[in-house]
Amino acid sequence: MTATTDAPVRPRPSSAARAVPLTAARLLRIELRHSPMPWILPLIAALFWFDSYRPSISQPPIWVLRTFWNMGQGHTIVDFGPFVAGMAAWIGSRDGRRGTSDLVTATARPRWLAQLVTWAAAAIWAVGGYLVFVGVMFGVYAHQGLGGAPPWWWVPVGTAAVAAFSAAGFAAGVFFPSRFAAPLAAFGAFVVMMLSSQTGFTATSGWALILPTNSNGNYEAVSGVFYRYLPDLPIARVMFLAGIAVAVLGLLGLPSGAGGPGLRRAAAVVTLAGVAAAGTAIGLAGTAWRGPYGIVIPALHDAANDQPVRYTPVCGHAAGTPVCMNPAYRRYLPDVTAALRPLLAEMAGLPGAPARATQVPGTYTSSEGEANPVVTISGRPPVLRVPLDALATLPGYTGFTGAPETEALFADQLRALSVHAFVGAGNGTGAPAQQAVQAALLLRVGVPFAVQANVMDAGNGPGPPPPPTTGPVYAAARRLAALPPAARHAWLAAHLGALRSGHLTLAQLP
Amino acid sequence: MNVDITDLTRRFGRTEAVAGVNLRTGAGVFGLLGPNGAGKTSLLRMMATALPPTSGQLRLLGRDPGAYGPRREIRRRLGYLPQNLGYYPGFTVAEFVEYFALLKDMPPGQVPRAVAAAVEHVGLGDKARAKLRTLSGGMLRRAGIAQAIVNGPELLLLDEPTAGLDPEQRVSFRALLRDLGQRATVVVSTHLVEDVGAACTEVALMDAGKIVFHGTPDELTARGEGTGAAGDAPLERGYSAVLAAARSATAARS
């Protein structure tokens, strides 16, 4: 023990570089086998069923409508986020809780890389669980024969959100390795979700659109039916969420014990890249505007996505008039023909009576993302154009209302809006004579006066609600409705032109 | 020299756990004795590169662990069993050992055979597939030793390795230590002086952060002869005599 001698250096095998991925793969296999993340999946499955799937089945069987609750409003993310963050924090705090810090610190493999493997195992379970749950839900929807197309773009958003929550929770566990890390991370994730949703209630534009549970403009009811789901906002959100995940994982590589100088520089670059991606996504969201078919981000927008989806309509007949609809709404064809049948029979032979009825997409232009349910009659020969997606109610059980009620409401509203268009009342209430003729025709096709006001008011009907069922308008309507059919038909044939131009007065009604 | 320590200190706040230790040793089994709080564990943690020194110089396997590259090379050649062995309860013995073999950057192709050999070495071959949570304290200790030796370390640091082992296991463990000491530097921190007498070629005794004795077990035994120091065995009497002398010298200085 008199002189210091250098010990012989054991050369690393030349295949060391190739061995690194293999080592990582074997570490990942062990971590996957022992990750506690799967323990939380049954709980999430129960929540997912109650919160994401079950409420959605009260929506009409159209993909865009049924998935708006769980994918568009981000309920699937809310169901996963807090639990995944909490469990990831538990996993991240493992070495601190188990007292293995010294043991793992004294190993050659850079701590950061080992942590990334541990996180990857947790994330694979969490993201895998998300994809399986969403896949099963979509499978059930497909089995139920939903119309339209699934919102595929929103699956990567949820996937990125789950990955981001797992990364954030894991980092919290690594930096604060105590048994309280898990509940605090879960609560923090829950608060973030609530703030995101709360902000989404009010922020209909700007940077806040990037928040994963801000539902404004995520979907329009025409998406996946008449137009594609616009990928602009999903792309920005994936950038944002992936950027957060990458930045947080990069942070783990910055402390002095995480690895060598080169690795820590790489971690700094990764962190900055993540921050840049998230920041860019926020900036992109700030340029977003609500187009007629969804949120448009100019830098990400592909004009090809504005083209309508080609489809072969499904058609039926109502009182001899063809009624054609988008195949996504195929199951509503009997309801539509049944609703229009007495009306088209009443209109038959009159000037401007529709030669055909067809479903058209609603126009979504307001800041709230609502479309006015405006039925029009135009063209030569005249075509009755019905935006079914804009109606307040489609026939069927809604979770609050039974099928018979919604079927009646649907039929009444469709008749009312069609008659409103037929008398030329446009977007307003119409002139008194137009109101009277409208009321009379509706009475003839089975919509009592007492119901008409409610029907016209439902779902942002055109103009303010009609006046009470008393007064000169309804007196004239009663007189017109009481005429024999042939006399009423003859009077309408003679006066419809004047009525539509607004030149007819109440006094001129029979 | 596989371990070359000069004026090494480590402070925790106002407490100086290791106070200017000098130590050099090569291949063989080196026993580190001392009462509770003497600074053995802190010294071992610094030698394991798990704890940076406050001051002083430390060279391990001819390299300076203060720089990242050499530190990583040291860690590839290092085996470490902490005093309080943390473990992952859900892992099996084999997985636990494999996990640390992979973290030690062993070539993946060599890992399965090395894991099997290490587990057999500590007598846990029949428990290789048992979950760690199902093992007794002694078995856990042996699993810890298996992870420490799996990479065939050139420097093996064992903090209280025989705690919890039954007499039969301790006898076989000492044989293992002697075997490992043929090729590597094995530093064993222990309270049990009979382990030192049976397995160590060198011994150091620490007290209050300082090394108060460094020599062979026979030299330590000789220090106790004729002193009337407490102890059932000659080595224990040497231990007690050295400690008593060191403490009286410290008291006289203060």
Write the SSE topology.
The complex is a heterodimer of chains A (510) and B (254).
Chain A: H1 16-34, H2 37-53, H3 63-66, H4 68-72, H5 75-92, H6 94-98, H7 101-105, H8 111-143, H9 154-175, H10 181-202, H11 232-251, H12 261-286, E1 289-291, E2 294-296, E3 314-318, E4 321-325, H13 333-347, E5 356-359, E6 376-378, E7 383-386, H14 403-422, H15 432-444, H16 449-457, H17 472-482, H18 485-501
Parallel strand pairs in A: 4-5, 5-7
Antiparallel strand pairs in A: 1-2, 3-4, 6-7
Chain B: E1 3-12, E2 15-25, E3 28-33, H1 40-47, E4 55-60, H2 68-76, E5 78-81, H3 93-103, H4 111-121, H5 137-149, E6 155-159, H6 167-181, E7 185-189, H7 193-199, E8 202-207, E9 210-215, H8 217-224, H9 234-253
Parallel strand pairs in B: 3-7, 3-8, 5-6, 6-7
Antiparallel strand pairs in B: 1-2, 1-4, 8-9
Helix pairs in contact in B: 3-4, 3-5, 4-5, 8-9
Radius of gyration of chain A: 31 Å
Into which percent range does the helicity of residues of chain A fall?
55-70%
Count every helix of chain A, treating DSSP H or I runs of 4 or more residues as helices: 18
Report strand % of chain A: 5-15%
* CATH homologous superfamily descriptor of the largest domain in chain B: P-loop containing nucleotide triphosphate hydrolases
**Tally of extended strands of chain A?**
7
Distance between the termini of chain B: 35 Å
Average of the residue pLDDT scores of chain B: 91
Largest interface: A-B, 39 and 46 residues
Strand numbers in spatial order across the main sheet of chain B: 5-6-7-3-8-9
Task: Explain this structure.
The complex is a heterodimer of chains A (510) and B (254). The termini of chain A are far apart. In chain A, the strands form 2 sheets. A 5-stranded mixed β-sheet of chain A has the order 3-4-5-7-6. The model of chain A is unreliable at 1-11 (pLDDT under 50). Chain A is elongated. Chain A has 510 residues and is mostly helical. Chain A has 2 domains: 21-306; 314-508. In chain A, helix 2 packs antiparallel against helix 5 (75-92), helix 11 (232-251) packs antiparallel against helix 12 (261-286) and helix 15 (432-444) packs across helix 17. Chain A has 18 helices and 7 strands. Chain B has 2 domains: 1-77 and 154-217, P-loop containing nucleotide triphosphate hydrolases (Rossmann fold), CATH 3.40.50; 85-152, no CATH class. In chain B, 40% of the residues lie in helices and 23% in strands. Chain B is built from 9 helices and 9 strands. The model of chain B has no long low-confidence stretch (mean pLDDT 91).
